[in-house]
Amino acid sequence: MGADLYRGRISEDGKMAGLRVRPPLSVGFILADNFTLSAFSLFIDFLRLAADEGDRSRRILCRWSIMSSRQTMAQASCGVAIGRDSGFLDPKDFDYIVVVGGLLHAGPQMDAETNAYLAAAAKAGVTLVGLCTGSFILCRAGLMKGRRSCVSWYHYQDFLAEFPDERVIADRMFFVDGNRITCSGGAGTADLASFLIERHLGRAIAQKARHVLLLDRARSGSEAQPHPPSNDEIVGDERVRRALLLMEQHVADPLPIAELASRLSISPRQLERLFQSVMGVRPASHYRLLRLRYARWLLDHTDLSITEIALDAGFADCAHFSRKFKALHGFTPTDARGRERQPLSDDAPSMATMPPPDAHLAAMRIFE
């Protein structure tokens, strides 16, 4: 559907002679306060490249509008400000209304008028898309009841804490649940944009946009996010949460335990006691398990060599990594590579809701 309706001469102003005005793909954008610029820019640049021949940027096959209840500019989390094209338009004019989320803990992301507009769009049957933390905004507006939300592994614990009764996926790029689509953000935004363009305009046009952006292939929504999924246990002690976050941020270059303690303004002995009390293991043991879990995920989901994986997981040499890996799993990294990889399906339970047997000792995504 769509692209074949636009065969014919394209005038210099981008209009099609004798054909309908509405393009095959029309998207409305709503930007949250402190929205993520990369998610917005990737998506809209895919539309731009798909909308016209070459790199001419005329809005022929695609149309988009940035809408807001306020006339002030929306500021991204990086400080870049973007103005609106209009107030809220008739939601039925759009195939999709895309909500671009951003920082979670920097005040309200949407006002009451915006939430009311999203509710009206949902009632009209328009597909709502949550990019990055846009899934949180849709959930807060009560628009994800009975739906599954796809979030980044980075925000999985945040989602569980705020929406304990909602269904969440944190191990794939994006998820289509009827007329709700949620995307983990980051580079996954490009994959979702490519998917929607192919759906409306065809594979060739989606491929052209990818090639101009130097993206070699489109990943399906069910492909795994490039990081191990999160466990669903929430740690109550703030100092342990901060230590876990520091560990996760320094997987390839592990921090000495003394350095971890220093950053928390406590002694190494205090940190040892805290971990024994809260986690049931010493901090060094937990840190190693975190790195081994990350290595296992890389083995299962990437084509990196075992040596590269050892270095990425913070091990000085491959032999040391192999010994520790076998001690934990009972088989070597080479054996793990030989095991059959199970593809993800949209009906399969999320890995984030099915932690491995040793998940109580494995890495957890924890936030301050």
> How many helical elements?
13
Strand content: 5-15%
Mean pLDDT: 83
Number of domains: 2
CATH architecture of the largest domain: 3-Layer(aba) Sandwich
Low-confidence stretches: 1-20, 340-368
Helix content: 25-40%
Spatial gap, N to C terminus: 47 Å
> What is the molecular shape?
globular
Gyration radius, in Å: 23 Å
CATH superfamily of the largest domain: Class I glutamine amidotransferase (GATase) domain
Cross-sheet strand order for the largest sheet: 2-1-5-6-10-9
H/E element sequence: EHEEEEHEHEHEEEHHHHHHHHH
Structural class: alpha/beta
CATH class of the largest domain: Alpha Beta
Sheet with most strands:
6 strands, mixed
Query: How many strands?
Result: 10
CATH topology of the largest domain: Rossmann fold
Give a short summary of the structure.
The chain is α/β, with parallel strands linked by helices.
Structural description of this entry:
The chain has 368 residues and is of the alpha/beta class. It folds into 2 domains: 3-212, Class I glutamine amidotransferase (GATase) domain (Rossmann fold); 238-361, Arc Repressor Mutant, subunit A, CATH 1.10.10. Helices cover 38% and strands 11% of the residues. The protein has helices at residues 37-51, 112-123, 134-140, 156-162, 188-201, 203-212, 238-249, 257-263, 268-278, 283-301, 306-312, 318-329, 333-338; strands at 25-31, 62-67, 74-75, 81-82, 96-100, 127-131, 148-150, 167-169, 174-177, 180-183. It has a 6-stranded mixed sheet, sandwiched between helices. A hairpin with a 5-residue loop joins strand 3 and strand 4. The protein is globular and about 65 Å long. The termini are far apart.
